[in-house]
Amino acid sequence: MLYETRSRSYSAGSSTDVYKIDARAVWFGNDRIETDITVSDDGYDNHGLSFAAVRAYPVVSPDGSVGTPLCSVNFSQNTVVGSYQYFHPPPETPIASITPITLPINPLLPLTDLVVRNGVAYVSTDSSIASDPDILVVDIKDHSHPAVISSLNTGPGISAISLANSYIFAAAASTAAQLHVIKINGPSSLYLAKKYQLPQEVASTSPPMGTAIFYANKRIYLGTERWKEQELAIIDVTNPENPAKISGYETDSKINAIYARGDVLYVGASDQNQLRTLNIQNPSSPILTNSFSPSGWQRQEVKFIDYFEDSLSFGRTSGGFNIVNDKELFSGISTSSSNPQYMLDIQGGVYGIVSDRDHIFVATRTVDQELSVFDRSLATSSAVYYSLPVLPQTMKCDGNHLYILAKTAPVIYEIGFYTD
What we know:
Layout: E1 5-11, E2 18-28, E3 32-41, E4 47-56, E5 95-102, E6 111-117, E7 120-125, E8 135-139, E9 147-152, E10 158-164, E11 167-172, E12 179-184, E13 190-196, E14 210-216, E15 219-224, E16 232-236, E17 244-249, E18 255-261, E19 264-269, E20 275-279, E21 287-292, E22 302-308, E23 311-316, E24 329-333, E25 342-344, E26 350-355, E27 359-364, E28 371-375, E29 384-386, E30 392-398, E31 401-406, E32 411-418
Antiparallel strand pairs: 1-2, 2-3, 3-4, 5-32, 6-7, 7-8, 8-9, 10-11, 11-12, 12-13, 14-15, 15-16, 16-17, 18-19, 19-20, 20-21, 22-23, 23-24, 24-25, 26-27, 27-28, 28-29, 30-31, 31-32
């Protein structure tokens, strides 16, 4: 069981020789359990062998399909499921290898979101031109020759996407249908399986556009612009092509980021309570348990939420100009509290966060610091900065790589890490 520790000793034929086996279960990323096992011989100066086993967490479906990618737990060591390495202290500073991948698409397309799975990139767009595609599927395995496998025009444009099983769930920039369900019949074939409009309690209310989305355990958590009804919708997608709203929650503000973790839902918004924590044990009745209101909320809004093992981080915009006391990066938030342990001023604002056991990787719009690497305490003294020639739109991970989608060019930057 998670966090359970067991220990057992065995005699090795003499009173001085005792073999000891110690085991402890901890998270391996967000969806797997790592059991660390040490076998030692106390009769020979504690010399022994250490190894780890990784298995699916019980709540993960048997086929392993979840809405979040299976990313490395330590990018500097390229630690992924199935990898093997000797146990040694992690290096202090990972060295990045950054590879630009130029997408063979219209450079004027406004790209909004990115998901990468096994060398295939799913990119959403929100163009004002009706004939432009809203979803692009691009094979990026060959960095020099990426190829568009398929594309789909859903109509109004897409703000954000989540990928699970053989479906893309999209928050649509549409008042007519805020959720689009796209079926993947193989990477080269997409079709729009369902357009879903949020139900309205008051018929005269002007419906909103979809702004944020998260998939977990056969539910979609959909965020919208501010309107007179609930900005958060919890939607049952047990049958993805027949979604049904379970419940909702009114924030009275636009929702930009959502993350579900077990029975807890985190909502990043643009009002005073910029990070809300909701208990969703009963999805029919979400309950607010905590909220966090950082200074500068009048100008800044949450853009990205990241969760790694037992700790949440979130980032927000700079609000147009920088005030040092109004931080943009927050980390070290536990399930029992919305108050962060660490906060940092990021001059250009935060547009992506990925964490591992030793570092927090941040996509920013600070010049020459578009990729910033911090330790888990956000210490600037040990931070490493990398320059990119573009403004980041978002950052995601898959396996042992990070991927930054550019805002101002049709480019994805693939980032791997190595050590001297």
